[in-house]
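User: FABP domain-containing protein, Panagrellus redivivus:
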Amino acid sequence: MSSDELTPKQQAIVGKWLLDRAENFDEYMKGIGINAIKRAIGNRIKPTVVISRGGSCPQLQLWKVSVKSTFKNEDWEFGIGERTKRNTIDGRCFLTTVTWDGDVLVEKQEVCNEDPNAVPSTIRRSVNDDGELVAECLVGDVVAKRFFKRVD
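Assistant: Predicted structure for FABP domain-containing protein:
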């Protein structure tokens, strides 16, 4: 399969999604070092996430993730398999690589020099059999899941 061909399950990730519910997300936020005030906000907001292909430069086969909420907004572009510097919506800085593991889009964070105390994590995104986008957030032995419903 060439880099621009996706399986139906991979293609299903593309779209507009609204957070429906979460499991163990507060423990995940604790694990990555988010303070109590930001955790309270993070547990209350229901962000809209738009995942698209093309980004600002379609010929480079970039992907774009836009997160919109009443608290903060974030836009992030990446190429599959490319390591990029990224500032997360909660203000941490990482070197991030996104790859496919079968039909799962895997975001692996590594510490960058600008933020050596940030705690890296891995986020695995896929569409389940119920048509929900599931973001599985892993740090240490903590696993959280966020479930999103398609809104487009």
